[in-house]
Amino acid sequence: MLRGGEPRSRPRSSPAPRPPDDIRPLATRVESEILYRLLRSSLGPVLRQWSLDDSTTARMREVARWICARYTEPLRIDEIAAVAHMSPASLHRHFKAATGMGPLKYQKHLRLQEAQRRLVAGGATAARIAQAVGYTSATQFSREYRSTYGLPPGQDAARLRARLAHTPTPQQA
Question: With the C-alpha atoms ordered 147, 63, 80, 74, is the resulting torsion angle positive or negative?
């Protein structure tokens, strides 16, 4: 029944599938409509900000990429700020708004993630991995690793390997 109490003449159904020959010429129109609807939605301002090349968000993306490419190196906040063309205080505020952490904490996060990945893969000591991801002190690495993951590096790696060994793969499930 329709709102006015009138019966429907036919049940609603989904549109008929398009023949393959129609997909290519209509795809750009469908994509354009999706983009239009997204830009008109509450996400519009965020999407527009992300698309601007010189926006603060774009600069923070560039800084994050720059840090990712150099996470093993000692970085200074003024050096990172120069990449963003901002003052150190402004960089810290904008980067934290974009990522939830400051630039140097982001670097530490990348180092620890990579260290954890390498530890689980095996084949090297925690001290060697610490050095490979940019730590100059194995003690500092172990302290930060334990603070982040709750266990010392070796114990955490063993725990994760055991967990992976007991996780069924899609072929086993």
Answer: positive
Tokens encoding 171 = 């072929």
Mind giving me the DSSP string for 118-171? Answer: HHHH-SS-HHHHHHHTT-S-HHHHHHHHHHHHSS-HHHHHHHHHHHHHTSPPTT
Residue-wise pLDDT tens digits, 67-107 = 999 999 999 999 999 999 999 999 999 999 989 999 999 99
Contact, 172 vs 111, CB < 8 A?
no
Q: What is the mean pLDDT of residues 48-59?
A: 72
CATH topology of domain 102-167: Arc Repressor Mutant, subunit A (1.10.10)
Domain residue ranges in the chain: 29-100, 102-167
| Inter-CA distances, 10 with 5, 6, 37, Å | 15, 12, 29
Whether the predicted pLDDT of 15 surpasses 80: no
